[in-house]
Amino acid sequence: MTGAAQETGLAIAVVGPSGAGKDTLMAAALARDPRLHLARRVITRPADAGGEEFEAASVADFEARRAAGDFALSWWAHGLFYGIPASVRQEVAEGRIVLMNLSRGALAEAAALFPRFLTLYIHARPEILAARLAARGRESGEDLAARIRRAGQWAEGLAVPVTTIDNSDGIDPALEQFMSAIRKALK
Fold it and tell me: What is the pTM of this model?
């Protein structure tokens, strides 16, 4: 992407079921376009849990930070608290393009918070999700099967319009769709 800096930034929610490849696509997009920035989430899970790069917090610390206004967005999902730092509001106001890994439950609030907002829904075929989740090793048996079932219903009832990206067939075609959606939103 080339061109002049944006007068108003863009907040991009990257959403989808576990195993769809959200973090992989965001990392590839960040490597491709230096104008993109990543909002590093704060999560109440152990720092060594693996997966995305995040800031670990205890529940007590998270609650104190939320009460102090440290988060632009926060939510509870899958037994954990998640937060997007309040600094993201300023970054977008200054014209930055910020990627945020969000929960579907936070989308309406995020869309209301940011004047320019794009939702990229990342998905993959069920057998691809199952293989990726099994390789991750966090769930097995019925827990893994339940995640796959939920993934099939993930996009139902979303509160905002979404651009759907299929990440079943490798990073290259999905990354092209991802970057194309961002270019379109910046016009």
Answer: 0.86
